[in-house]
Amino acid sequence: MAQTLRAPEILALARRHGHVRVDDLVGRVGVTPQTIRRDLAELERAGKLERVHGGAVLPSATRNIAYEERRALNAGAKTRIAEICAGLIPADSSLFLNIGTTTEAVARALLHHRNLMVVTNNLNIAMILAANPAAQGIVTGGRARGADGGLVGALAVDCVERFKLDHAVIGCSAIDGGGDLLDFDPEEVAVSKAILDQSRNRILVADQTKLGRPAPIRIGALEQIDTVVTDAALPQRLAFDCQRWRTAVALVGDD
């Protein structure tokens, strides 16, 4: 099958799922991983896809993909990441959870934890945790984003700054090769920065589609993070830097 015939199928899958993975495409179209990588490279050069670790996502340098697409993107891995992350949060503790589909998965994984105080700028997380009678949920103020239930702006930052909590669990839209944590909305980034500042232990939850993806606004760096929970090995240089920074990497396995 020529690349010109494979390209429409690859793009259709990317539009349907928000991403494509090399391993999945190999089984689907019956060519080698090297051929698929060349296909993805050509589609990236054409501006139709963005390469990420293990595959590609729909292109976006200045705006995030839609919330429902993000929810579906690598959903199984996000669930496994959330379960590992929840194991790092003891009962009788306090934590922040920021905006994101992976942090929403963490909230679901915390439903059986006892005596938690959770501060969040994510209305979806507040509704998830309402099912846990042993968790006290506190929602920041702020401007509500209808697309994803996020609360952003100065009021959200002010609320976060009133607390000093045991843990922060944050997500981001992208991690670049130097270890910078990136996102798309400056108001959302301001809240995430405040969360990091007001936490004693900082956990980043990020699936493999975030590795090497572009985004324009810097939240911080992996150097500030105590533990990153992910589903793919970090690039060699970044893994070395994490050791130097004493940032632990918890790698979840496949189903």
Shape descriptor reads globular
Count of beta strands:
15
Largest sheet: 7 strands, parallel
Q: Averaged pLDDT, please?
A: 90
Distance between the termini: 31 Å
Strand content: 15-25%
Radius of gyration over C-alpha positions, nearest whole angstrom: 18 Å
Q: Strands of the biggest beta sheet: in what spatial order?
A: 6-5-4-9-12-14-15
Oligomeric form: single chain
> Number of helical runs?
10
Uncertain runs: none
Instruction: Kindly identify the CATH topology of the largest domain.
Output: Rossmann fold
CATH architectural name of the largest domain = 3-Layer(aba) Sandwich
- The assigned structural class equals alpha/beta
| CATH C-level category of the largest domain | Alpha Beta
The helical percent reads 25-40%
How many structural domains in the coordinates? Answer: 2
